Amino acid sequence: MNAGIKKYNETQSEVDKEICDLLANIIDKELTDAENKIWHAHPVWFIEGNPIVGYSKQKNGIKLMFWSGADFEETELIIRGAKFKDASIVFNEATEINTKKIKGWLKKSRDIQWDYKNIVKRKGKLERLK
Known about the structure:
By secondary structure, this protein is of the alpha+beta class. It has one domain (about 5-110): Alpha-Beta Complex (Aspartate Aminotransferase, domain 1), CATH 3.90.1150.200. The chain is built from three helices and six strands, in the order ααββββββα. The protein has a six-stranded antiparallel beta sheet with strand order 1-2-3-4-6-5, covered by helices on one side.
């Protein structure tokens, strides 16, 4: 696990740390070629510089976000707006995490990608990569 991500997880409460550690381990095992680091103050995994998945502590729990998740067609993932293509799910206990579902979403995150890496260059316009 990336040292910055490990430190982030260690700053969480015991319950949230358990969730964060589990998520990081699942993501690391599934996205073996992804770069991961603390980005905008929370753990994020990138493929070829494009953000794919990350998690962060929110008021209502640990939020797992997929940058292109709106196109996964998964009812459990919450889509917040129309401008971006992100979707997320919130966990309050490690027992809520369905590893099989997350692995499926991570597979989709490889196959379905919007180009967030160049969003500034394109003045906020997203283009589909895959």
